[in-house]
């Protein structure tokens, strides 16, 4: 999480308090509302000072939302704001945690060996008819709303969402796919939580022969080491990807009529942080800093909109979704939504189910259970004479021969019995996790006996 300085928050608290003294209501006006909000969202704070500072931020956001909903300062009446899970963050904090990490500076760069198809020219050469309204959720082609947390990997959620959609349309099967595999392993051009681009993610999946499921390679909200064993567990395959020509809303509409489409947007408008419901029509810049998925379109009250799936959890917007104004009269679209659409293509069947890895081989005669790691517990003259089994896949064995650590926390601290991430040779307890005893399971001979059919 990224925080502004404590001094800045105290100054903000003082400013809101001063406003109250001059007739604006002050913090006391929002105290009960803040208490209810904390209970609803499970929020607590380490110190009374931090709580006061967060109350000040909350009060400022509450005043902003109330002014918008009342139509103040020329606010749009087509959407409303609410005090959602982000209401105790300043807008700068919110942007730092959730935005600014989409690799879209300048013209779209084509990765070496790219398998991108020709630009999309529309259904039936651009003359195909599309329905007046469409929602791919109703066809079962959209997985549940996910939450990227403070990891700037919105690009991976947009990419998996588009792949999940086309896979359902082509095969009838909806499978939630692994953003974490893209974050950890797609490193030629993308940088995990540091940012990326959906086209690069599509290219990675194509070259890898598919992508793993979310269940098998779950999301951790942080960068990690690529689990190369999981790269072979491909459940969904795509064959190519296509870019919709930028700033062409008619072609984007036709693309969405055939499948969910990845897009970049600008999420930097303050109203975006507290969006609750309705058709969002700005004001909003068009410098792209966030990736989302268009899953349909429609009209309401004479106003057209896109149905946008976000990756900020169900507590934001309409249970994780937003209606964004379509046909707004700007070729770039509201928040630049028309600037960079793309989608994957699929013609081939998915790979057959990957066989289980089977027992982990420690030595000629010793095996550990599937999904565990062999750790040497007794070594003489460089030869291991006794093995133990760590109940973690692809783990790091600690030198004390008693514990093991997850591969993404490879530094063992035998004193505190913690595992840490490395940082130029140092580590911080803020990043620690508890170690697991490597003797939790005894070495198994059963795998060898099964192989020998004894």
From TrEMBL:
Recall the GO molecular function terms of this protein's record.
cysteine-type peptidase activity
Q: Which cellular compartments is it found in?
A: Cell membrane; Vacuole
Cathepsin propeptide inhibitor domain residues: 34-94
Q: Which UniProt keywords apply?
A: Cell membrane, Disulfide bond, Glycoprotein, Hydrolase, Membrane, Protease, Signal, Thiol protease, Vacuole
Q: Which residues form the Peptidase C1A papain C-terminal domain?
A: 130-345
* One cellular-component annotation, GO: vacuole
Protein name from the UniProt record: Oryzain alpha chain
Source organism of this protein record: Zizania palustris
């Amino acid at each position: 999480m990224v925080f502004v300085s404590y001094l800045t928050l105290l100054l903000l608290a003082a400013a809101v308090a001063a406003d109250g003294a001059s007739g604006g209501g002050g913090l006391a006006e929002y105290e009960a509302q803040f208490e209810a909000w904390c209970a609803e969202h499970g929020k607590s704070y380490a110190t009374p000072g931090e709580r006061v500072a967060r109350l000040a931020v909350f009060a400022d956001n509450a005043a902003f939302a109330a002014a918008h909903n009342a139509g103040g300062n020329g606010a749009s009446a087509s959407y409303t704001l609410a005090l959602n899970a982000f209401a105790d963050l300043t807008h700068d904090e919110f942007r730092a945690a959730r935005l600014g990490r989409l690799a879209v500076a300048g013209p779209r760069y084509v990765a070496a060996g790219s398998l991108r198809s020709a630009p999309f020219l529309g259904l039936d050469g651009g003359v195909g008819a599309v329905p007046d309204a469409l929602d791919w959720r109703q066809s079962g082609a959209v997985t549940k709303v996910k939450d990227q947390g403070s990891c700037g990997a919105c690009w991976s959620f947009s990419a998996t969402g588009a792949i999940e959609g086309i896979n359902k349309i082509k095969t009838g099967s909806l499978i939630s796919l692994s953003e974490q595999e893209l974050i950890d392993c797609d490193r030629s051009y993308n940088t995990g939580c540091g940012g990326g681009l959906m086209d690069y993610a599509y290219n990675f999946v194509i070259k890898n022969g598919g992508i793993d499921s979310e269940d098998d390679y779950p999301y951790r909200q942080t960068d990690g080491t690529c689990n190369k064993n999981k790269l072979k567990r491909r459940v969904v395959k795509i064959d190519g990807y296509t870019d919709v020509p930028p700033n062409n809303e008619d072609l984007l509409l036709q693309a969405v009529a055939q499948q969910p489409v990845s897009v970049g947007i600008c999420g930097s408008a303050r109203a975006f942080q507290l969006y609750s419901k309705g058709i969002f029509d700005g004001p909003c810049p068009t410098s792209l800093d966030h990736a989302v998925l268009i899953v349909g379109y429609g009209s309401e009250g004479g106003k057209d909109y896109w149905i946008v799936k976000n990756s900020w959890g169900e507590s934001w917007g309409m249970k994780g979704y937003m209606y964004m104004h379509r046909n707004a009269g700007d070729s770039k679209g509201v928040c630049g939504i028309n600037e960079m659409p793309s989608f994957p293509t699929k013609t081939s069947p998915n790979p057959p189910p990957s066989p289980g890895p089977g027992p982990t081989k420690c030595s000629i005669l010793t095996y550990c259970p599937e999904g565990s790691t062999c750790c040497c517990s007794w070594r003489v003259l460089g030869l291991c004479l006794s093995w133990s089994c760590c109940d973690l896949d692809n783990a790091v064995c600690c030198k004390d021969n008693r514990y093991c650590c997850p591969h993404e926390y490879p530094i063992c601290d035998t004193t505190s019995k913690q595992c840490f991430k490395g940082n130029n040779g140092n580590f911080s307890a803020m990043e620690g996790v508890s170690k697991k005893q490597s003797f939790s399971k005894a070495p198994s001979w059963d795998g060898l006996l099964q192989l020998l059919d004894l």
